[in-house]
Amino acid sequence: MSTNIETEVSNTEQRLRSLLTNAAQPQEGSLKSSIETIDYRDIRQVFHVKQPLGDDSPVTGAPLSFASPSEFRKAVRRNEFTSSTNGICPGRMQCNLIVLEEEYAFDFLLFCQKNPRACPLVEVCDVGAFTATVAEGSDLRTDIPKYCIYQNGKLLTKTHDATPYWPPKAVAFLIGCSFSYDGALLKAGIPLRSVEQKKNVPMYKTNVPCHPAGRFGGHVVVSMKPIKAVDVAKEVLITSKYALAHGAPLCVGCPESIGIQNLNNPDWGESVDILPDEVPVFHYCGVTPQQVLMESGVPFFISHSPGHMLVTDLASDHAVV
Amino acid sequence: MSTNIETEVSNTEQRLRSLLTNAAQPQEGSLKSSIETIDYRDIRQVFHVKQPLGDDSPVTGAPLSFASPSEFRKAVRRNEFTSSTNGICPGRMQCNLIVLEEEYAFDFLLFCQKNPRACPLVEVCDVGAFTATVAEGSDLRTDIPKYCIYQNGKLLTKTHDATPYWPPKAVAFLIGCSFSYDGALLKAGIPLRSVEQKKNVPMYKTNVPCHPAGRFGGHVVVSMKPIKAVDVAKEVLITSKYALAHGAPLCVGCPESIGIQNLNNPDWGESVDILPDEVPVFHYCGVTPQQVLMESGVPFFISHSPGHMLVTDLASDHAVV
């Protein structure tokens, strides 16, 4: 693993050096175009790649922009982007990934259908398929910035390339993600603290049980946003329209009432500041199935790493009612 | 004033005595019917009337039922009901009242139009009229359980009958009231603490300025409901549909952020308990115009007493979008 990172760092450092060299030695008449060819994003990626491969790899800087979700996925496939996708490709639907061996697929599909708030299904791929129709030309084994590989209910490893672990008869589930409405919130003047603070969103296990299905049962995981008390109603009204992105909050304020004892100690992601005029707003999170599959002791599954999502071609307000 | 109350107490005590006498001395074959003729509501009213005439006259017992809003208004006109209308005639729109002399009417109408969240207009009566079309056969001078008479920005007196104070060329404004969606909240499993605790709702001045208009400016007044943190989203989604009843909350949690220092010390109504799993939810309140007219030092106006509303014939979901 560390060798991979070193290789990436080395490659991207070389690219940065070459870009800076081009910028520093302009030929007459070509200064402007040389500067324009310095891709701001490429420079950022060097720092991305220097982040340790952990739960909490932060969002670097302001939201990056890519020509298209497809371009973004290609960058991810080339390991040029390995961070949280919070704020990436605003206006596009992002998805959680769960990959299960065929024999567990029915129970999991049933689980999703019984828990649509926590697990809104965007797409279920055919057995053995690893291209999603909602992400044209995608390879689900490589197009997510970071994966978690689980064995016997425990995290085995994290990786930027799930290909070696992908079971031949796997079923891939794409589940909506609350990042999808972030653009709409921003547009409505509701900023995202995690983006402001360059952090992955904080996520917490709750004591709220899911509806069990087949072999699967466990507890809801939530993500948290601090929202100004006078903006809560607007936040609820906007998010409620995004059923495929978990919809309206599960809980507003009172973290203890859903079993969260310490907001500064999230189970995934990083804690963010909450100002005196803000309340913590908790939304269903697509990490819920990871928690449930762990709690249920499934022998093997693959997921995205929390906060590191598949960016699809769908508009984030796809299916907004 | 005290003479009025004494007369009422005396009258209603006589009625109670007579009802109890009828019940205690049944004639053969008429026991059942005699007991049935004891109107539970009549007995309640005795205790209503014994309440001192103050800001905080509590809601007595469970919501009372009346044959129709019209019957309720007639009972009010006869001084048989003098309490808060919280929980009365569920499913009917309730209204705040403001009565101004003609020369202030245009400025106030402009004020309402600039502050539709705080002052949603249900009806503006013609100059000199005291019957509302939204309350058939009503007499706005007598059909509200309790009135406030203001002079030079200060409360002059409270009364059950505003007739002697009603200016000949007055304009009456009926403004929506958040009691109107209480039925929808109850139906959705969201109980009302003020009804549970037999209290008038707590109302607070805020530091949120209204949009000024003409001679009028001042601060928003809010009412407060404790709502379970896991029910806040549902509360917002339901109330947001009731634009004529102030719509979605102005603020959820963080009372200080809107200038409320002590929830236990409301400016009108009574404080209610907030449980550990609940957040205080603040809605725009129709007492706002009273506050604004006081702040603006209007020489004279009449209003309902906070919590003591006009019950209209309109369905509470009239104008729900």
Automatic annotation (TrEMBL), chains A, B:
InterPro entries: D-Glu_cyclase, Putative_hydro-lyase. Pfam families: D-Glu_cyclase. GO terms for molecular function: lyase activity. The keyword Lyase applies. Keywords: Lyase. Coiled coil: none annotated. Belongs to the D-glutamate cyclase family. This is DUF1445 domain-containing protein.
